[in-house]
Amino acid sequence: MKTANKFVLKPLNCIVSALLLGTTSYAIAADEQPQTETKAQNDIELIQVTGFRSSLNKSLATKRFEVNTTESIAAEDIGKFPDLNIAESLQRIPGVAISREGGEGRQITLRGLGPAFTRTTLNGMEVPASTDGTDSGGGVNGGRAFDFNIFASELFNRVDIQKTPTAATEEGGIAGTVDMYSARPFDSTGFHVAASAQAGYNDLTEEVDPRMVFMISNTFADDTIGALFSVAKSERTVRQEGFGTVRWTTPVLDGGGIYADTSNTEVIGTPNTGECEFEGQTVDAVNCLYTPRLPRPDFFGNEQDRLGFTGSLQYAPNDDLVLTLDTLHSTLDNDRTMYNFFEMFRNTFSEITPESITVAENGKQIQAATFNGVKSRVESRQQISKTKFKQYVFSAKYHLSDYLRLDAMVGTAESDARSEQYRYNMTNNTPHRVSMDFGTTNNTAVMNYDYDTLDANSFDLADGRLRATDVLRENDTAKIDLSYEMDMMNIKGGIAYNDRAVNYDESQINGFPDQDSATGFSQLLPYDDFGAGYDGTLSPFIVADFDAINSQLLVKEWVPRSAQSWKVEEQTMAAYIESNFEYEISDMLLRTNAGVRYVKTETTSTGFIQTDPVTIENSYDNVLPVLNLALDATEDVIVRLGLSKTMTRPSLSSLNPGNPSFSYLNGTVSAGNPFLDPFTSTNTDFGVEWYFAEESLLAATAFYKDIGSFIKSDSEVKLVDPAYLPFIDNDPQYDPSSALDPRTTPYTHFVPVNGQGTVIKGLELIYQQPFSFLPGLLKNMGLVSNYTYVSAGEITGLSENSYNFTLYYEVEDYGMRASVNKRDNYITDYTGNNGNAEEATTGPTHFDLSAFYNINENVTVTFEAINLTDEYERLYTTGDGTLNLPREYNHTGRQFFLGIRYNL
Questions:
Q1: 203 in Cβ contact with 180 (< 8 Å)
Q2: Tens-digit pLDDT profile for residues 765-822
Q3: Where are the domains of the chain?
Q4: Which residue range or ranges hold the TonB-dependent receptor plug domain (predicted)?
């Protein structure tokens, strides 16, 4: 006799309690081990395909048979992930958008929420990995956001994204959780060897870089013992060229005074600025026109070396016990050089006379102009960085009886990132004439100067800024889960402990000897083809000679900046209980997952106020109920509902209680707040999935997130606290000749605070199908596509629309696929700077291509083409909120990889 439990939806806590305590005649055990097939999967007819289609089918099976909303990217074969970069694989998942650095995917945005809102795990434990960036401060990521470029994709067997949690899912990801799994020997028993070698070519650098992978795996003693080892090595030469402005401003908004003299300025066009006032007086309208602060050609170069090792040992003496030890070691070396040559309008408008100005059509910005009284500067930076990561995870799965199973895990991980930056300024302090013309593209200005910009005698060498940062991130984890299974019933419970810490230290080299002339310490930009492939005109310029300066002028002795050091420790203890049932309702099957998770968080933040140490403690707890329903309405249609409460903790770096960080050129002060509460969100997901044919899916999912409190940056314009003035005067980063004087000029002070919440609403659409119903060669083609719409308040990094299409053609011996990925423009800073309402990024469109040819069953030739159209990165500011003012416009070139792969 069939029975059915019927219930009415109540508030989430009540539903969860009812399902946890209730019983049913029909229940099913839900095995949540990521590498174990469910009974339902075993009952499905398996379609034997290889290559990219094999990866798609594995991913589709994972999505279909999970109760919660889960997406997956699976390896095509052992040691063969579908893409060269994990972030670039994840962008094929609906709701995922990525940010790139140097043409390579680095971080992800999920369902409109930035990288810090997505929790990333590796083999079951959180990944505390940090890398450096190309920002002017040479900063290292000390927050919770994960940098996917630290690992080679070949080290991984599968990556899942849980968009709706279960109670067993560790808290921390309001947007979702990314689970990465390295390969294990029991994934595929027997002896296996995989090796590949690729040569990568970039048409901008014109360099050839190697990429190599080797993996070996075997099982012994009747498959009761297994061992796997892999190594991945790659080098990458990056070159990024373009033009920048470091934001636009007006003389009135800049803070350094209005133009020296506008009485004879020739104005072409009509300013549309309204009444232009400065200090209560009406002034010439050109003082309210937006003008580039630091117009400049830019060059960024990077020599990257990535090395990774994984190891896995497994032991299964019987059917009841499996022991696993997973290890991963990775290093990422970056040797960056960054050069730019700019005219200084920032803070110096009062020294400059505009001789002629052509007003843009909108009447609010300059289109072209000639100025007199301007000074120049060349900024040269060398940034040498190394990130070392290691993780050890020991796990056990033990069937204590026919009904009781124990899962346990202990792990430790450490990321140590050091970045040394050598920055030198060469300044021409002789006022001169300069003209700029942005033409019709409004991306790059043609610059002309009335002096020889390649003459080192025109420049001094001063303001050596020599700084190093060390970020050590550690995480220790222990988890125990107990699952009770009887008569097809499953109830699980468990506890989890995490001990996380971030140590941030700075050091510097003191006593750099300024030089009156850059002669002997400079060189022509060491790339004679600079700007050759650029969409615009880039003028060559001289730059610092790092070898000459470092060997002749520098005493390399790093002195700790103890006052800028800080440490944040975080301990969490969590407990959960959940149930998994199946209810037969007429001819339909309802699968349920219900549970509740409790977690307590304690933080200890240590820093310095001036020179005095300070320690602040804080704690909070959260109750996180969750309900997932999956209704198998027919054999091919699944209707899903997810209700949950989730949380994301504040960035550990934002909890720094110590001295603030000063930007003397921009006049800003940034401080931490150790009393920040976490973000919390109440979530609803509703989706329908139609598996209308083999290997096919048509799906729609609507999601709604009500975030109760959002951490925002509170700002106040005021003079710097006089207590910090001695600290500033002794700071080598402070240059009185170019900085805003903190004694007389108010600085904008920023501090993170718990502010008003926001609501995120969105829709995800998926269409995936092989075209096997078509005639002839067309039957070997297929399409994977998705579209995401997200609507929210002021959330940085959110693109309202994004989509991804992959068209593939595959037969047994060869195949190829072409992909296009597009996202809308997105805001990166709502607070703005220098009189701008926002800072934003133009949404890119990327085209990629991949192909393979099987020489025989063991040897395959591969080809990859990335960024086929050489998509440019364009950052901009919005001025008064209505403008589109270029901040950066650059490109990194096309990348091509030709390789050979051996598999046994």
A1: no
A2: 999 999 999 999 999 999 999 999 999 988 888 999 999 999 999 999 999 999 999 9
A3: 12-903
A4: 68-176
Please state the pTM of the whole predicted model: 0.87
**Which contiguous run of DSSP H or E holds residue 853?**
strand 845-854
Distance of CA 710 to the CA centre of its chain: 19
Q: Residue 62: left (phi > 0), alpha (psi -120 to 50), or beta?
A: alpha
Residue 857 CA, distance from chain mean position: 38
Provide mean pLDDT across the span 542-546.
Answer: 96
Q: Which whole-number Å values give the CA distances from 465 to 5, 7, 243, 292, 574, in the listed order? A: 70, 67, 23, 24, 45
- Is residue 456 within a helix (H) or strand (E), and if so which, with residue range? none
CA distance 387 to 130: 7
Coil, strand or helix at 18: helix
Angle (CA) 284-285-290 rounded to 5° is 125
Q: What's the fold here for domain 12-903?
A: Maltoporin; Chain A (2.40.170)
Query: How does 587-611 read in b/e, with b if 16+ C-beta sit within 10 Å?
Result: eebbbbbbbbbbbebebbbbbbeee
Strand pairing category for 588-609 and 566-585:
antiparallel
Q: Give the β-pairing of 489-508 and 559-560.
A: antiparallel
Q: According to the model, what pLDDT value does residue 125 have? A: 92
Q: What is the pLDDT of residues 733-742, one digit of tens each?
A: 777 777 778 8
Question: Beta strand 612-632 with 489-508: parallel, antiparallel or unpaired?
Answer: unpaired
Supply the DSSP string of 286-344, one letter for each residue: GGGSBEESS-EEEEEEEEEEEEEEEEEEEEEEETTEEEEEEEEEEEEEEEEEEEEEEEE
Quickly count: other Cβ atoms within 10 Å of residue 677's Cβ: 17
| Residue in 716, 718, 714 with CA at minimum distance from that of residue 746 | 718
